[in-house]
Structure formats: C-alpha cells, structure tokens
Amino acid sequence: MTSRSARFLLSLFSLWGLVMAGPVLGGVGSANQAPAPRPTAVATATAPSGEAEPSWALPKDYSEFLRQYYRIYKVNKTDCVKVGPNKVKMLPPVAGFYELVREDEQYYYIRNLPLEDKDSWGHKAWLKGEYADVTEQVREEYMRDKYIVVDEPDILSPFTDKLDFVRMDTGLPNVGRWVRSFDVADMNGDGLPDIILPPERMGAGHPWIILQQKDGTWKAWDAARWPSGIKLDYGTVRVADFDGDDHLDIAIACHFLPSYVLYGNGKGDFTRTVRLPVLNGDVTSQALTVADFNGDGRPDIALLDELDVMMGTGTRIKSGLVNVMLNLPGGWKAIGDDFPREIFGYALGAADIDRDGSTDLILTSRQQGVRDLVWHNAGKGEKWEPIGSRLMPFNSFVYAVATGPLDRFPNPDLVACYQQHNPREKDLPTQACTTYRFHDENGKPLAEPKAELLLKHKEEFNGYLGIAIGDVDGDGRNDIAVVSQKGKLQVFLQFPDGKFYEQRFRDFDLGEGTMPADVRIADLNGDGMGEIVVMGTLANEKGESGGGVWVFSPRRKAPAKATGRS
Q1: Up-side HSE of residue 449: CA atoms within 13 Å toward CB?
Q2: Are 215 and 193 contacting, i.e. CB atoms less than 8 angstroms apart?
C-alpha cells in the first residue's frame, strides 16, 4: 500500500468512525451520514448469480478496500430512482447515490460511486487524502534545500591518545550554581590570566574575579569592590577596556535584570557603572558579546534577549530582541531594527565571517526554526543583513556558537551546536555540531558557507550547550572543545590533514550532578598549550554536589619506547 493509499484509508476510517459493517462496503449507505443497517425488506442487495454473499469484515489494506468498495450488487428498481444515465438514488431509509453499471427488467446493478464523485459517501475522505498528498509534496519541495541532518549517519570521530591532562583548579569553586558564561583576562596586571565568573545563581549578587597565583592555584581577589546601588544576577560577563583608560572593565548581562558596564580602575574597584540602553525596555538578556562593530577602535557590545515573552502577562515581545550597542564618545547607542522579531537565546558570537573587514554577529536561538543566525555588518554596526541562512540548521534549537580559524587560512570559521527535530516523522531529537567555512579550498570568500558535520547522534535531553575553539596541543592548529548537558566534556584535536580526532581523558566526565554551562580554551600558564576551562551548575536544584569550575591543563605524552632487539 502506498503512503497516499495509507493516508486515504486512515482518513476514511476516521471519517466514518470505523463503522464498516453492512452496506458501507457493499454500496447501499448514505452519502452524508453513517451507513444504515444492511437492508433486508426495503432494498434487496443480493450478490450476483453464482457469487457468495459478501463478507463485511474490515479490509486489511487499501487494495482489499477497493475490491469490496466497487463490488457490484443488484437492487429492486422499486427501491431506487434513476437520476442520470449512470446514476441512481436509493429511496429511504437507505438513501444515497450510486453508480449504475447495468440493468434488466427487474433490477439495477449498482456499485459505489467513484471516490472522486462529489455524491460519493467517501468523497470527503478522498479529498482529505488528496489534500494530505499535496501538502506532503509542498512540504518536501520546501525542505529540499534545507540543512537537515537527522537522516545522516551518526558521527563516530576517530580518537587519539596524544595528550594527558592534569587538573589545575585548586582554589576555584568546586560546587554551586554557576550559570551561563565566564571570561578569561589578566585583571590585576601581573601577567597571569585570571578567571572572571558571573554572579552565582542564588549567591552573593556580584561577579567573582579569581586571580591565578604563581603556583597555578587560584584565589578570589580580595580587593574587588562592587557597586551597591544596582542589583546583579547570573548571566554572562565579558572583559574589555570600554573607556580607554588602560584598565579592564566588565560588561554583564543579568537574568531578568538590566545589563551594565562595570568600569574598573585597575585596582579592583568596579563601583562606577553605566546601564546599557536597549531598544525595548521589556527585553532582558543573559547573552552578551564584545567586538568593535563600527571600526572606531572602541569595543562595542551586543545583547540577545533571554525570553521573548512577558512573564507577567504572557504577551509576546516582537521588537528589540537583539541590541547592538555602539560605544560612542558621547555614550552608548542601541541599534537593532534589522534583526529577527521572534528569537531568544543564551549565547552570541562575533567575527569577520565574510572577510570584508567588518565584524559580523552570530546569534543562537532557543526559538525553534530560526535560521537567520549569521548577520553581515553592512553599515558600521548600524545596518545588518542575514547571510548563509539556507544552510543553517532547519527545524532546530541552536544552543551554542564559536568562531575561529579551522584550517590553514587565517579567516574565522564558525561552529554551531544544535538540537534538530525530524520534520517528517516522530523521532528522537538529533544532537549535532556543524562547522561552517565561508571560503573555498583556496581561501576565496563564498556567498554561502560549506557545511560539514562534526558531531551527530540521537538522544533526548543531552544537547551540546557550550563550544570553544583554540589550540590545545600547541601545534599551531585550532582544536575544538564541547560540553553536553549531561556533564561530559569532549575535546577534538585538529591533525595536519585537517580532520578532527577526539582526545579522550577519564576526568572529562564531570558527573551526573553537573550541567555544564560554558567552556573556554586559553593558555593560562604560558606554555603555548591551551587549558580547557569548564563552568557548570548543579544539574539538580536540590542536589548538594555538582557544579563549579574545572581547569584541564594539557601535557604531551612521551613517545612510546621501542621494545625488542634492533
């Protein structure tokens, strides 16, 4: 049975409530109501001479249905009226129109009208089948050029045992609700990179600057001072010198609160603040990124809304969901009219993806189906256009993005991690990460990127929530690290052939008590190899263990010694 036949049969059974006994298949039912009981006195529906009385069992398939449906029966001419050269109408209580096949002096030989005939009792069901068929054709045509990976085979990455790792996180939080995104920067000017954490959820209400000590341990900066007149909460922190005084400042996007810049004085005082303007005062953010969008040498900021619904009223917010804030000499200016009106997410990226000299913006979306994610900077940060949308994940939630060179060319590439749902049938969701290169094999820019699957498997509730690009093994080629919802870190080293090999390590499993929120690759000890830093929260709100900050420091393994005689 074809898919179209199956849809018709299902639609037919649904239409008639599975009441298939008697004349429904024999040709003496009503066109507009459930079939009457098989006639005995009024209309004698008798099988033609030599045939056994028909069986009224439910058909097993569409072919059997058609054989029963078009079976010929004879009825007394007194029980019906001829209404055309090839059509009769049964008299009450049976009623309904039927096709006249032939006649003799006493009988009409009739059968059910073709399903295409509007007077057929099955016509409505047939129309449903036709509509479903056309709908499927339109849907398949629409999806023909979409980026769908659900039917691709799972990616089983080759693995390598090139590195070992030692933990380098003594003094960092080893439990807690550390949510969204952190940063790495030398905050006190001692030449050692430090870790800047957002406020802990349900915690002290201020960021944490954890200074790296000379022995590789960590200690909270006792000199840090925070503003007292504003409320801060968990979200994203990013570090830059926003006012040009050669001291690092902190931009922070807070859950259900305004976003701020906390200006630093180089000695730990961050009490001078400015509230960042947004186009829609109802919009709050947890996602924040920093880049020079207008090319004036001053770091600007972009924000993405964390929820596009007003919590108090349930009203949808459809404006000002993405804000680019230009850091102008006269103050901050919000731009955002070009961006999607239905989107929200927890991560952002920025890089010159199309190599035109201007920094572009990369969005994520927990609004299913948004594919305008890469935005070309078309006018010094004040005009934006989507690019590469056709090859962005279709019917997906895009959780995380990262940018950086992933081959021999210096221009940045993009990695996006997402959960894709099968648009054709019920299935487990697909968890995947795809690399996008906006250039060809010679480094020439492309209008549409080349997409290549990095990771893919089917599983519920285990999306890739964070991704980082950086050189872990110190070979000059960027590697990739991802963290998944159930507490696993995966590291993929790029080899000279451009392929990625998974580097395994026993402690990369952070445990079921932790849900990772973010991951970074940064050289913390100056040895040319990137440490992997992971921040996570309690997977269970009632849990007492889980969450915290991990640092994995890579070490090259010694070559295996030769054995045996030479």
Answers
A1: 28
A2: no
SS3 404: strand
Other beta carbons within 10 angstroms of residue 19's beta carbon come to 11
Backbone dihedral angles phi then psi of residue 483, each to the nearest 5 degrees:
-125, 140
Residue 147 corresponds to which tokens in the numbers above? 């980026």
Q: What is the mean pLDDT of the chain?
A: 89
CA distance between the termini of the chain: 69
The closest alpha carbon to 435, from 420, 419, 458, 413, belongs to 413
The two three-digit tokens of residue 491, written as one number: 């590291």
Q: Is the pLDDT of residue 358 over 70?
A: yes
- Of 286 and 31, the structure prediction assigns the larger pLDDT to 286
Q: Give the number of other CB atoms < 10 A from CB of residue 52.
A: 6
In this prediction, residue 64 carries a pLDDT of 87
d(CA 535, CA 517): 6
Q: Is 445 left (phi over 0), alpha (psi -120 to 50) or beta?
A: beta
Q: Count other C-beta atoms under 10 Å from residue 227's C-beta.
A: 16
Given pLDDT bands bounded at 50, 70 and 90, which one contains residue 178? very high
**Which of 70, 54, 53 has the alpha carbon at shortest distance from 120?**
70
Residue in 552, 468, 467 with CA at minimum distance from that of residue 509? 552
d(CA 96, CA 108): 15
pLDDT in tens, 520-542: 999 999 999 999 999 999 999 88
**Beta-bridge partners for 492:** 480, 502
Q: Residues 113, 102, 90, CA angle at the centre, nearest 5°?
A: 50
Question: Computed over its alpha carbons, how large is the radius of gyration of the chain?
Answer: 34
The band of 561, judged by pLDDT with boundaries at 50, 70 and 90, is low
Please report which confidence band the pLDDT of residue 14 belongs to, taking 50, 70 and 90 as the band edges: very low
How far, in Å, CA of 376 to CA of 354, rounded? 7
pLDDT reported for residue 420: 98
In the chain, the largest separation of any two C-alpha atoms, in whole Å, equals 112
Q: Select the more confidently predicted residue: 327 or 411.
A: 327
Q: Please, which residues have CB within 8 angstroms of residue 503's CB and are 6 or more apart in sequence? A: 159, 160, 161, 162, 163, 472, 473, 491, 492, 493
Encoded tokens for 3: 């898919």
Q: Which residues contact 482 (CB under 8 A, 6 or more apart)?
A: 400, 417, 433, 455, 464, 466, 467, 468, 489, 490, 492, 519
Nearest CA to 278 out of 240, 306, 248, 313 is that of 306
Percent of the chain predicted with pLDDT > 90: 80
Q: What does the alpha-carbon distance between residue 45 and residue 23 come to, in Å, rounded to a whole number? A: 9
